[in-house]
Amino acid sequence: MAATVVIPGSAASAYFLIRDPNGYPALPAGPGFLDQSSSFLAAVPVVWAAWLPVFVGALAYTVYQWLPAQRLNPRHEWAGWAAITAVVLGTLWLWAATEGHPAAATWIAVILVLAGLAVVHRINGWPPSTRAEHLITDVPAGAFLGVSVLALLASLGSWLVQSGADVGGWGGEAWTLVALVSVVVGVTTICMTDRGHLSVALTVVWGLGWIGVARLLEDPAAVWPAVGAFVAAFLIIVSASSRRQQVDHARRLADRQQLKAESSGPAAGEAPEAART
After folding, report:
1. Is 25 strand, coil or helix?
2. Are 203 and 43 spatial neighbours (Cβ–Cβ below 8 Å)?
């Protein structure tokens, strides 16, 4: 019941926060917190279309949980609260971003990432029973963690620039590369669990790609942060894909071994019968 009330309400609030004069959802392009020139970690505004799978997935889940076949599904005991958390925190971050509060947006993004990690950990220990359940619950959950990472990058970068931070005297390019390395290590670690969590990887790769484009085409132009973003995207997608292939290969091998054992079972049982005859 809570999901039925909170999710549509939060989705409607998010829409009214970011709608343009024509009624279409569109985050402001700047100048300001979300402008691609706000920091080396900023991307072109189209990157925030990554929030769409999160909100659409939560709305689909609201309908899915009411299907007669799903009323006794114990997975909904936590999946519903996960969907509620995603849309409520997502709406709060969108509010902080559109209002131009990078410090508040950074702290909200930290909570977003922690919540996303908790949900993915839960998914690893409780896999879905059907493909439909995977598409409606697990894929949006992965996208939620991915866009949370992007939100943290953008918020933190803007906050550091606004506060005039110069971490260790290294300059903006240095702490940008440190942030990108941290993202690669963290996301690839996540992608080494389950079947690779491609929805997490693809969402982060989408964002890193647009960060790289922004650094090549927009002010402030910076070659090394652009190269770092593209390399980070490549490493993440390779790790997620290789994990998916590894798990699928192991599953196919186990299935073949099971079929072989089942087919050889009757033959092994025929010999004693023949001996008694």
Report:
1. strand
2. no
Residue 226: closest CA among 56, 48, 61, 43: 43
- The Cα-based distances of 109 to 67, 92, 154, 172, 181 in angstroms read 33, 9, 9, 21, 18
Tell me how far apart the alpha carbons of residues 105 and 156 are, in angstroms, rounded to a whole number. 8
Statement: the pTM of the whole predicted model exceeds 0.90: no
Task: Measure Cα distances from 237 to 184, 187, 203, 206 in Å.
Answer: 10, 10, 10, 10
pLDDT of residue 90: 94
**For 75-132, how does the pLDDT look when each residue is reduced to its tens digit (9 = 90+)?**
888 888 999 999 999 999 999 888 888 889 999 999 999 999 999 999 888 888 888 8
- More confident position, 71 or 187: 187
Tokens encoding 44:
């072109």
- Nearest Cα residue to 150 out of 45, 58, 79, 19: 45
Alpha helices, H only, the chain: 2-18, 51-64, 76-99, 102-125, 131-133, 139-163, 172-191, 198-217, 223-276
Contacts of residue 54, Cβ cutoff 8 Å, sequence gap at least 6: 86, 87, 90, 140, 143, 144, 147
Nearest residue to 210 (alpha-carbon basis) of 153, 250, 168: 153
Here the tokens at position 191 are 């992608």
Count of alpha carbons within 13 angstroms of residue 78, beta-carbon side: 14
Cis peptide before 220 (omega within 30 of 0): yes
